[in-house]
């Protein structure tokens, strides 16, 4: 076989004209033969297995102990007993104890939700983004337009409009309950249109939210206002 | 709840430690008694799988303990983590220990462990289910929403995560 048409150097041609397969085979034999020979020794294989297995088991055990050690220390020092004792002093009757615990949990959840809501509202106010919704009757369908105005000085990213539809109102075939609007620049207005099919549900119950990533990379979630009705309830 | 308040919580979650002690002391004794001495090709494959599951155990335990709440009992927890490993798995410690049980089967290569390990896996599952029940009672819809977007033991690539996410994976 001649390699002249490929314009290769004479050394490369010589190399390729030789039996390259044999060379590779010889090279691999030199490399792997001692290893395979050693592994044929059953005792060595058993030692390797034993080392690997017990190393893994010991390391995993140590990892667990190291991470759980603070809990064990707390158990030994008994610092958690104080709170338990305090709880027992407050409630004497079993039923009252359960009721108090339940009320505490409920209060905790309420406080947390309230704080979260306030935090979100403050964050939304800071963003300067306003959301409007308008519902227009289009024959037997409804067209919901969600208008998002970015009145802040910086752009907002990853804008998503997600609807919570009540029972009796569904997204029309080909229309989705969620739309991504991407980036909205400062001062820009973008609108997301949804086509809905009413099947006995109340359009005033349509809810949802607009979610976006602000300039400070904080995720903000603005609930959708009750949509303005146009052409509805007039018939 | 501020992060400071959260870090002041008492570390009193002893149940994982107790279950793990029970689980692995039994498995360790059985492994010492019944570990196969064979060193054939299948043994290499099984030991390789065991090493893989051990690595998973270490990774999950390390990731779970990045959050202080992991060591706080669900009864006294004032918040629940939703970031890091908790963004995809709700019970990483349980998942880690289940993987370690599988690793024990792979390392031992004995049928003796096959009927025992499911019992311990069930124990971890019951414990995880109990924790979730308590957290649901304490945090209500907030935790329910978190449950929709995550799985109990295995994370990543699930349809439910894709469906529950906003499309930009901001949850």
Task: Give the SSE layout.
The complex is a heterodimer of chains A (235) and B (171).
Chain A lengths: L9 H8 L2 H20 L2 H36 L3 H10 L3 H34 L1 E10 L2 E10 L5 E9 L4 E3 L6 E7 L4 E10 L8 E7 L5 E5 L4 E3 L5
Parallel strand pairs in A: 1-9
Antiparallel strand pairs in A: 1-2, 2-6, 3-5, 3-7, 4-6, 7-8
Chain B lengths: L2 H5 L7 H20 L6 H24 L27 H17 L4 H27 L1 H9 L9 H6 L7
**Total count of helical runs of at least 4 residues of chain B:** 7
Poorly predicted residue ranges of chain B: 157-167
Oligomeric state of this protein: heterodimer
Can you tell me the CATH architecture of the largest domain in chain A?
Answer: Sandwich
| CATH architecture annotation name of chain B | Up-down Bundle
In short:
The complex is a heterodimer of chains A (235) and B (171). Chain A is built from 5 helices and 9 strands. By secondary structure, chain A is of the alpha+beta class.
Can you tell me about this structure?
The complex is a heterodimer of chains A (235) and B (171). Chain A has 235 residues and is α+β, with helices and mostly antiparallel strands. In chain A, 46% of the residues lie in helices and 27% in strands. Chain A has three domains: 36 residues, no CATH class; 40 residues; 103 residues, Immunoglobulins (Immunoglobulin-like, Sandwich). The longest helix of chain A is centred in the first third of the chain and has 36 residues. Chain A is extended. The N and C termini of chain A lie far apart (90 Å). In chain B, α2 packs antiparallel against α5, α3 packs antiparallel against α4 and α4 runs antiparallel to α5. The radius of gyration of chain B is 18 Å and the shape is elongated. Chain B is mostly helical and 171 residues long. At the A-B interface, α3, α5 and β3 of A face α2, α3, α4 and α5 of B.
């Amino acid at each position: 076989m001649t390699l002249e048409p490929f314009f290769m150097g004479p050394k490369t041609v010589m190399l390729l004209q030789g039996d390259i397969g044999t060379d590779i085979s010889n090279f691999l034999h030199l490399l792997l033969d001692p290893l395979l020979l050693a592994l044929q020794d059953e005792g060595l294989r058993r030692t390797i297995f034993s080392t690997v297995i017990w190393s893994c088991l010991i390391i995993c055990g140590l990892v667990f102990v190291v991470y759980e050690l603070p809990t064990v220390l707390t158990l030994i020092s008994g610092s958690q007993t104080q709170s338990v004792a305090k709880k027992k002093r407050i409630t004497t009757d079993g039923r009252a104890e359960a009721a108090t615990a339940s009320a505490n949990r409920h209060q905790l959840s309420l406080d947390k939700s309230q704080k979260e809501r306030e935090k979100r509202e403050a964050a939304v106010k800071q963003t300067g983004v306003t959301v409007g919704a308008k519902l227009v009757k289009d024959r037997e369908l409804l067209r919901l337009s969600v208008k998002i105005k970015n009145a802040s000085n910086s752009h907002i990213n990853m804008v998503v409009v997600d609807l919570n539809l009540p029972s009796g109102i569904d997204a029309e075939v080909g229309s989705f309950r969620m739309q991504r609007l991407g980036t909205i620049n400062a001062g820009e207005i973008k609108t997301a249109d949804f086509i809905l099919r009413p099947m006995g549900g109340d359009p005033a119950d349509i809810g949802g939210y607009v979610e976006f990533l602000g300039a400070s990379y904080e995720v903000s979630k603005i609930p959708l206002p009750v949509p303005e009705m146009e052409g509805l309830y007039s018939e | 709840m501020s992060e400071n308040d959260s870090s002041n919580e008492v570390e009193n979650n002893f149940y994982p430690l107790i279950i793990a002690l029970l689980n692995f002391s039994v498995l360790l004794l059985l492994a010492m008694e019944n570990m196969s001495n064979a060193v054939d090709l299948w043994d290499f494959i099984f030991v390789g799988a065991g090493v893989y599951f051990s690595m998973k155990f270490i990774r999950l335990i390390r990731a779970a303990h990045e959050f202080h709440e992991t060591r706080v009992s669900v009864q006294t927890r004032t918040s629940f983590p939703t970031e890091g490993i908790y963004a995809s798995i709700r019970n990483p410690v349980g998942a880690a220990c289940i993987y370690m049980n599988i690793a024990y089967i792979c390392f031992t290569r004995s049928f003796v462990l096959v009927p025992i390990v499911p019992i311990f896996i069930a124990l971890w599952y019951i414990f995880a289910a109990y924790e979730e029940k308590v957290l649901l009672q304490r945090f209500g819809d907030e935790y329910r929403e978190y449950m929709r977007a995550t799985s109990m033991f295995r994370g990543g690539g699930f349809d439910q995560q894709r469906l529950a996410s906003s499309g930009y994976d901001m949850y």
